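My main concern about presentation is that the manuscript never shows what a single data entry looks like. In essence, backbone conformation is discretised, so a fold becomes a row of integers matching the chain in length. An entry of this sort, consisting of the sequence and the corresponding backbone structure tokens, reads as follows:
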Amino acid sequence: MADPLVQLERRDRVALLRLHRPPLNPLSTQLLDELAAHGDALAADESLQTVVVTGNEKAFAAGADVTEFTEPGAAPRVTAAFRGAFDALGSIPRPVIAAIEGFALGGGFELALACDLRVASETARVGFPEILLGIFPGAGGTQRLSRLVGPARAKDLIWSGRQVKADEALALGVVDRVVAAGGALDAALEWASTLGKGAVVAMGIAKRVIDGGYDLPLPDALDLEASGFAEVFETEDAATGIRSFLDDGPGKATFSGR
């Protein structure tokens, strides 16, 4: 049996998803289907605290598998595979962090943008080169990038097809932290571990409210927030946190993740 193209490792209650299609991890439909299956399984795992997605030292993922573009009916099939994988990641009710070494281009950049947070090494490069093939990003890139940096900057990056260095990516806001070369995974795991000590159920509900309310009219978004706020009060962590605050002051609670 062939090795899986997405390898799952457990680091205590942190799940590490490692793309394994060396050297550059092109995103084939098979790889995306495996990623979707992992995302669905992790979304149902109540013991989970956080998730980290990474590639290897050469590439997070250098893009879609362009060889599949030449097959009949490729566009809808490839788009569906990307959508399924990224929707599955988005459905995980926990923080999902991308650890980027090397290239995150095209579909690889879209994968990073589908995560909640991004850590890049100083040698990382991100961008959308699709325009050089006469196409444009079709797996969420036009929408997720414009929501992060605004439509004008998104158009510049998509129309130019240029590769963006880590320091500019940080300044633009498309990555959240930049670390020394070779350090992205360790930094992401440390960040994931720190977040995992907090009220991860509340984080998951907040994630759903933030993502779901982004495009709603403000009154509807506030209704969504109010519903989530009522829901979080029913969790064990909320009871623990409020009781700890009243007894010992802020920042002393130990959460169970329930």
User: Anything to note?
Assistant: The domain at 200-248 is CATH 1.10.12.10 (Lyase 2-enoyl-coa Hydratase; Chain  A, domain 2).
